[in-house]
Amino acid sequence: MSQAPAPAAPDTALPGPSRAARGTVVLGGAGQAAWTEHETVCHAAIARRLATLLGADFAGHYVLGQPYAPPLYFVPADVVVGLDVATAHGIRGAADLYGGVVPHGVVATKAITHPLVDAHAAAPDGWSHDFPQQVAAVALPGYSAFSREDALRAGRRLLARGPVRLKPALGRAGRGQQVAGDEAQLQAALSALPPGEPESSGLVLEADLLQATTYSVGEVRVGDSIIAYHGTQRHTFDNRGELTYGGSDLHVCRGDLDELLARTRVPTLREAIAQARSYDRAARACFPAMFASRRNYDVVQGVDRRGNACSGVLESSWRIGGASGAEVAALLRLRQDPGCTQLRVRAVERYGRGGEPPPGADILFRGTDPEEGELLKYVSVETGA
């Protein structure tokens, strides 16, 4: 049986909305429901903290037709697909939600990053041939495919450079990925795809790196607060023994990605931030109808099989994600301390029993998820910078 989250301090201990609270924060609405129970619990905890930040009330899950004190601020579980869908809910710009809105479903996936294998390859509605060209200099060698035949041709081309990583375009937390070192392994990986894939959602094939480090680079705007950050991701094993996302350590500053880049001196971090910024600008140029208040990018740096250093943006996240608890914790701390300009925040996801969070940590979920088993998720503001 699942358990409710056990915060380090009850929500009433958080600075609450003033008596003259303006507006209402709601979960869901225009986006689909969270995929697991622990995500639902974490999203609710984050939405409560966003309500505190905005000086608004939190009203739980959105109910169509229910009267709410305006303005409404949405926290969808995923990217909202369709401008008409967003507008019907009163979402007209980035100030109306924590997350993003895209005109077509493919725009919210990994598949937009890489080109098709050739001009005859299959492509879904909303596909942009221009975007992969614009981000080619800040992405790894790779292709996107929407048929097994196209994926096989793309994989063969990439195998000439070394092993190929295959990633479901809708995959999350690194799950479902495979590495093929030769054509037999490539064929086996494609044969193992679920029925209807990659035709339905797409498949990304790209060069596999050694000694890889994945950076998170992001910018978040909520109300009149703006933060940007860089950080590293950690991986862990889930209760099935599968490698998955284990959290992020973020260095956060006030301001946007330009400000973050100006404050950063480490060359590898500067490269990651600059690449994320270029990817972000290309997305807004190629998909002008999209908008997002949370813009997060994964950037990998490592070495290819020829010994060459490589760095590139893997994907975007314009929705609530694994680092969102840390982002909102940073926003709240910076609001509480106007003199603070930078800080460090840690998001942790720990599977199985044992282990306690550090004193003062904000626990978003602790219990048994029906699908994931024993799980602890918390954030902590560790040091100023």
Overview of this protein structure:
The model is unreliable at 1-19 (pLDDT under 50). This protein has 385 residues and is α+β, with helices and mostly antiparallel strands. It folds into 3 domains: 11-105; 110-208, Dna Ligase, domain 1 (2-Layer Sandwich); 211-384, D-amino Acid Aminotransferase, Chain A, domain 1. The chain has 8 helices and 18 strands. The protein is 23% helix and 32% strand. The chain has an 8-stranded antiparallel β-sheet with strand order 15-14-10-11-12-16-18-17, sandwiched between helices.
Write the layout of secondary structure elements.
Layout: E1 24-27, H1 37-54, E2 57-61, E3 72-75, E4 80-81, H2 83-88, E5 100-102, H3 130-134, E6 142-145, H4 148-159, E7 164-168, E8 178-180, H5 183-191, E9 203-207, E10 210-222, E11 225-237, E12 243-254, H6 257-263, H7 267-286, E13 291-292, E14 294-303, E15 309-317, H8 324-336, E16 342-351, E17 362-369, E18 373-384
Parallel strand pairs: 1-2, 1-3, 4-5
Antiparallel strand pairs: 5-13, 6-9, 7-8, 7-9, 10-11, 10-14, 11-12, 12-16, 14-15, 16-18, 17-18
Helix pairs in contact: 1-8, 4-5, 6-7
